Amino acid sequence: MDDRAEHGGPRVPQQRRPGSPGEPAALRFDVLGPVRARRGDEQLATGSPQQRALLAALLLREGRTATAAELIDALWGEDPPSQALAAVRTYASRLRKALDPRVLVSESGGYAVRGLGQGALDLAVAQEHAAEAEKARAAGDLGRAREVLNRALGLWDGEALAGVPGPYAEAQRVRLEEWRLGLLEARLDMDLEQGCHAEAVSELTALTAAYPLRERLRELLMLALYRSGRQAEALAVYADTRRLLAEELGVDPRAGLRELQRRILQADPELAEPSAPAEQPTVVQVRPAQLPATVPDFTGRSSFVRELGEVLAAASGPGGGDGTGRVMAVSALAGIGGVGKTTLAVHLAHRARSAFPDGQLYVDLQGAGARAAEPETVLGSFLRALGTADSAIPDSLAERAALYRSVLDGRRVLVLLDNAKDAAQVRPLLPGTEGCAALITSRVRMVDLAGAHLVDLDVMSPDEALVLFTRIVGEERVASEREAALDVVAACGFLPLAIRIAASRLAARRTWTVSVLAAKLADERRRLDELQAGDLAVKATFELGYGALDPSQARAFRLLGLADGPDISLAAAAAVLDLPPEDAEDLLESLVDTSLLESAAPGRYRFHDLVRLYARACAERDTRPEERGAALSRLLDFYLATTAQVYVIEHPRDRLVDDLEPTRYPGLRFTEATAALDWLYTEAGPLLACVRQAAGTERLRQAVDLLWAAKDLTESGANSHQYETTARATCEATRAMDDRRAEGRARTVLSDVLLVSGRIQQSEDEARVAMELADRARDATAVSWVANNRGLICLHQGRFADGKVFFDQALEGLRAAGNRPFEATALGNLSRAYLGMGETAKAVEIAQRGLAAHSEIGRSVRLANSHFALGVALTQAGRHTEALADFAEALHIFHEHRQRLWEGVTNFRIAQVHLAAGRPAQAAQHAELALTLGCIGGDRMRGNVLTLLGRALAELCQADRARACWREALSLYEQSGAPEADDARALLTPTSTG
């Protein structure tokens, strides 16, 4: 029997939608796993294995009748029992009673399953999902295709037709498994197309272990490893595959696999990233008669040229039978001064002059100046340009606008309205008929211009900016100083006007090098003064916008410019301005409409770099020093108060917040943990910038405490580098101000950062100084904290007895302070010291005490640390099942609290347990996850993970890939001076068995 679908998937019975008269309710069948039948939530009896085999054979017949002979062959093959026909009839009778007589019908001496409801068979649902995914992929919607394929794959519940006997079931099992793997390969292929290569490595490692001869999986694994920067492992996969195919089948890898190996060896750049379909260029030719000349060095903006060209094409293209255009198109370009609005609009107009043959009009409306052009004056000039005699031009605005629209009726004209003030100025100047188009540039977003296609023009990309700079300066001068040229365009904020001015100054001074210009622009306080050439000046452009602000807008513009950081939230801006959030939002949105401020996302705002410099210059010129200081103090208080709230939620009953500097301005309040964590990670950049900005002021202690309260950022792995940079800057500031208490805390934080990143000796150096400073300042909180850190450092150094002494010291201080949560964490660390000293039973008992204490306090991220510590102790005790349970709970909590590095190290520990228990495939999968996530401990821990992964791969007979892992591990150990280097060298010796 062969029930194959025409398009590769299994064929299934025809189904009709539920709700037909008399149809049993909610009858469902499963074949992608054990064969089951359900009506609603009730599972129906399907009888013996042979009876389920009969049901499966009928379900997979597409509603067609199966003869008794076919069913006997399906159940028993060539050796049926003597009473096979009677048995088939008995099975069918029992199934009819259990299901419904109208579902299993008898006809022509055979049986069939008919009239199933929509979605009644899991295989049918999977096939529908697969077809939908194929359509989505063909349409280029890979996200949708992946989602639907995952739903299809999720319908499998183990092996298809599990436990069903007979040759037919066996053939179908093979076919369904092949189809499942095909779907899985298709989904993994789309994962790689969307750049999810690092995440795919773990899954592919496990799959290649389970299906070692499936070459497509090996090919996908090679590609995923290569795109993850692991070229040696990718080539090792090929070597393992070639050896395995030769040993098992006596064949070479297929051509596709060999070609992939060749491309990897040649570092083919096309392999590095997923391929993207080539974009079709949009050719729009516009030629208005009144347009200014386009610049010869127009650069970039390809996406905007394409987008706006399509809008113009909608107007200029054929519409009705008379050949006129389909719509009257209006496009309004908004952006800060100097972003290139006019240049882009003129360039677009020049591309389309043949599409608008009846006239091209242009006017500078002078909207950014003190005296904007009057609409009636502009209409008079437009009417004259269109051939209207002066005597025929009426006096009033309304009459001129009506005549203007009448003159344009039936014509195809492009109107470029440059530098508009607002929508009111523009409305009378718009053509009123289809076939015409208007391009508008303005610093104001014209949200109140009905029907307009709004475009927010941003700065150039770095590549575009460098091309523009090179075209003006010359290829020869830039090629020899490319890095300096990149510094120049970055200092210009990638703003076209600034780049043009800087490049023009350099082109006019042949004795200057690009480096000389870069050095001049490096000084932020002089940068705006440097960016002027002739009648072009960036500062003058910004002054036009600032001069048009009302007093409240101007104050907000100045004060917001004081805050460092990539952007600012509405709540933080409200603190800076000392306003209710709703009033602050009105002001900020009004600044966005003037293009002096950008809306980075709903509720978030940012300045262009050069605009920020101008805003600060305005603040120094127009705002009293005490008002500037008060604004930044409110911002620091806001961040410290809010971060303390997050800390309380993440670490309930921890006493650290009781010992932070007091705040005068309130922070946000959170009702649940997810919102608190969202705030912390969203605000990481601005928060750390605030710490750096405040570190050199009289608010130094608040800055240090803010950094300390935000310590969860570093262990997440998302902000580690930025956090470390801030910690170092804070240490320098505290030393310069000779504040022992602040310096002790700052060095404690820095020691913690270095410990997380695996730089153990540097961490110890900082911790030793921090302990001395905290002792002298009588800062008991810092003493306990740094004692715990020094204990952890000792664990890394193998000094377990010394570690116990430090942990005991930390526990003494924590108990005295009543800090029960941190005490429980320190107990988990103490258990690790006992493990190192060989007292495994004692270590388990102490870890259990720490877990019990945390369990009493409630669910928090530190509860995960206690589960982790107990899992480590149980692993060493050989209690693998219990250890896995604790690690699983720790992993869940770490993920919930977004501690990615702790997730990574927990996966490493789980991999250790699986390898010790003889499960190398699972060990490899978890080790791959650890590599993808990253781990506490930096390169040294990554080396440990690679070593363990290599051992697992060696047990899976992937020797070449195992050696690639060990070589990389050895390199990491040698770079960090880790003692594990000797173990890695031993694994790589020819006599090593792995």
Low-confidence parts = 1-8, 10-23, 276-288, 320-325
Judging from the principal axes of the Cα atoms, what is the shape?
A: globular
Level-1 CATH class name of the largest domain: Mainly Alpha
Sheet/helix structural class: alpha/beta
What is the overall pLDDT average? Answer: 86
Q: Within the CATH hierarchy, at the fold level, what is the topology of the largest domain?
A: Arc Repressor Mutant, subunit A
Biggest sheet, open or closed, and with what strands and sense?
A: 5 strands, parallel
CATH 2nd-level architecture of the largest domain: Orthogonal Bundle
Q: Determine the N-to-C terminus distance.
A: 48 Å
Instruction: State the helical fraction.
Output: 55-70%
Give me the count of strands.
18
The Cα radius of gyration reads 36 Å
Protein name: Regulatory protein AfsR
TPR repeats: 864-897
DNA-binding region: 13-115
GO molecular function: ADP binding; DNA binding
